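The pair is quoted verbatim as follows:
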Amino acid sequence: MDSDSGEQSEGEPVTAAGPDAFSSKSLALQAQKKILSKIASKTVANMLIDDTSSEIFDELYKVTREHTHSKKEAHKIMKDLIKVAVKIGVLYRHNQFSPEEVVIVEKFRKKLNQTAMTMVSFYEVEYTFDRNVLSQLLHECQDLVHELVRRHLTPRTHGRINHVFDHFADVGFLSTLYSLEGDCRPSLKRICEGINKLLDEKIL
């Protein structure tokens, strides 16, 4: 299932818009086509990552670039995030999870929902932000993702999962993201608006 072994180098271009361009949607489509081709699926009815999620990912790229001071590292983190999300989406849509793994999927959904609501609450209610609480929730999500894909994906993908969660669950990053005076506030607002939309639509 995992197509890591046949991938091109990590430096492959994502768009033709230049090295500074970042589009989570084009990256997701690229990853999806590559993975779906491996399982002989000829039709793609819907994007596995919807428009709202793409907008959230684009904002996460901005704040990651701000925090790391590295476009290259920010791009790598988001590329890993999108690859993992698309792979799990393909596995789920093609009924590759066992009954035991479906139980883990539901646990992950609930934990992700709790994490999403906590993120929004910390933004909307002043002086409630607790970086340690949010970090712990994200690490719990990380553990569930590892458990879910253990039978399906390679050690390389497990490394990608760690790369993504170790960044977003980092208390330093979370402090930057939620800083009242920082440059990330507009992005956090858009991220939380997107999360609220996904919660309203029962996607999260």
User: Anything to note?
Assistant: Residues 59 and 187 are 6 Å apart (CA to CA). The chain has eight helices and no strands.
